[in-house]
TrEMBL record:
One Pfam family linked to the record: MFS_1
Source taxonomy: Bacteria, Pseudomonadati, Bacteroidota, Cytophagia, Cytophagales
PROSITE patterns: MFS
Limits of the Major facilitator superfamily (MFS) profile domain: 5-376
Signal peptide location: none
Entry keyword Ubl conjugation: no
CDD domains: MFS_MosC_like (cd17393)
InterPro entries according to UniProt: MFS (IPR011701), MFS_dom (IPR020846), MFS_trans_sf (IPR036259), MFS_Transporter (IPR051788)
Keyword Thylakoid appears in the UniProt entry: no
Keywords: Membrane, Transmembrane, Transmembrane helix
Membrane topology: Multi-pass membrane protein
Compartmental location: Membrane
Organism expressing this protein natively: Algoriphagus namhaensis
Protein's recorded name: MFS transporter
Spans through the membrane: 42-65, 72-89, 95-115, 136-157, 163-181, 201-225, 237-256, 268-289, 295-314, 326-347, 353-373
Length: 385
């Protein structure tokens, strides 16, 4: 088999492992709530520990990758990330699980920067866009993780047993992938501890990611509520919006590399913004089951390529090393992911959910404008081997 193909399969399996770990944790949240007898408010507070850890991990992730290389961070960080998962299930108190979740979030984002840095190096060797397919594998792992979680619940296995099984599987994946994870060329400058001031390129790409991730966060947390309260879907069909959104996002990431090669990054980002805007406006103007299902499908395809293409552009910054550039963009984007869901709730309290979704639709227009104005700064291509 072609060495590049082996590297791609190995790296894809690592993206899959990261998505599997995260989805496994998410699938057992209701049981964690029952174990500690948490109210909704207390559970919400506990769940904040994960994004707190993610934010804490972002400033150091770029520095770690720049100093030690993505290969070292992937191997050691991946092992620690896998070990942190069963610690969640074994935590005896809420304080203990809170600390473990902070660690889990921190390690997750360190790994996010490391695997994307490795993917950018492989993309350069390919000489064409391949990053989105890796993000598609992460998204696909969410479905697999949810399925394994459902099976574990059906078998009445505890979260700690479930998580230990995933840890063993993760170590197996890391062990098989390790020989094909290469040491990338060390960037001569632009390292150091993030946070740094972004240049025009990283600021623009970061804002595009911010708007895209805000849409993602809203769809993750509010799609079911929208189908229940606005679409008035049958209770058995309330999850339809979430499922079609996630399915479209995952499949769209597998398609976007080929589309990017044909039409270019800027065109795909602009079209993605159009899909987000059109889909959300359609869901607002015609909140009927089949129309809203189509609308959420459009939004899923719309957000699919935003983050992978933003990372691909940012990782070729001429000022910062790839790890630091990715950390800067991830930091900006992540705040969009955190801000979106509560913003939806706040606006819905003042007006209603339809107004909230209509305002989030404007993110799509913002993406189109940011990608259209001075679009020449995005003209960065993978270096051919």
């Amino acid at each position: 088999m072609n060495p590049l193909k082996k590297r791609r399969i190995a790296l894809g399996s690592l993206f899959f492992f990261l998505g599997l770990c995260f989805a496994s944790w998410a699938s057992r949240i209701p049981e964690i709530q029952s174990k500690f007898d948490l109210s909704e408010g207390q559970l919400g507070t506990l769940l904040l520990c994960l994004p707190i850890g993610s934010v804490l991990g972002l400033p150091i992730a770029g520095w770690l990758v720049h100093k030690y290389g993505s290969r070292v961070v992937i191997i050691w960080g991946g092992a620690l990330y896998a070990i942190a998962l069963p610690l969640v299930g074994l935590s005896p108190t809420t304080w203990a699980i809170a600390l473990v979740l902070v660690l889990f979030g921190l390690l997750g984002n360190v790994m996010n920067i490391a695997v994307n840095t490795q993917a950018l190096a492989l993309e350069d060797d390919y000489g064409r866009s391949i990053l989105a397919s890796f993000h598609g594998l992460w998204s696909s792992a969410g479905f697999v993780g949810a399925g394994i979680g459902a099976a574990m619940i059906f078998l009445t296995l505890s979260p700690s047993t479930h998580f230990l099984f995933i840890t063993i599987l993760s170590f197996f994946i890391i062990f098989l992938a390790r020989p094909f994870v290469v040491k990338e060329a060390k960037a001569p400058s632009g390292g150091g501890l993030v946070l740094k001031k972004p240049d025009d390129l990283l600021l623009r790409v970061g804002l595009i990611s911010f708007l895209g991730m805000m849409c993602e966060g809203c769809m993750f947390d509010w799609s079911g509520v929208y189908f229940k309260k606005v679409v008035l879907a049958d209770p058995t069909l309330v999850a339809t919006g979430y499922v079609v959104f996630m399915g479209a996002m995952a499949s769209g990431r597998f398609l976007s590399d080929r589309l990017t090669a044909r039409f270019g990054k800027v065109q795909i980002i602009r079209f993605s913004g159009l899909l987000i805007f059109s889909g959300l406006i359609l869901a607002v103007l015609m909140p009927y089951y089949w129309v809203a299902t189509l609308a959420f499908l459009m939004v899923g395809f719309g957000v699919a390529a935003i983050v992978p293409l933003s990372y691909s552009i940012a990782g070729r910054s001429k000022i910062y090393s790839p790890g630091v550039a990715l950390a800067i963009v991830s930091t900006i984007a992540f705040f969009g992911f955190l801000l979106g869901p509560p913003l939806i709730g706040f606006i819905a309290d003042l007006f209603n959910l339809k107004v909230s979704f209509a305002l989030i639709a404007l993110n799509g227009l913002g993406i189109m404008i940011l990608a259209s104005y001075r679009k020449e700064i995005f003209d960065v291509k993978p270096a051919k081997a």
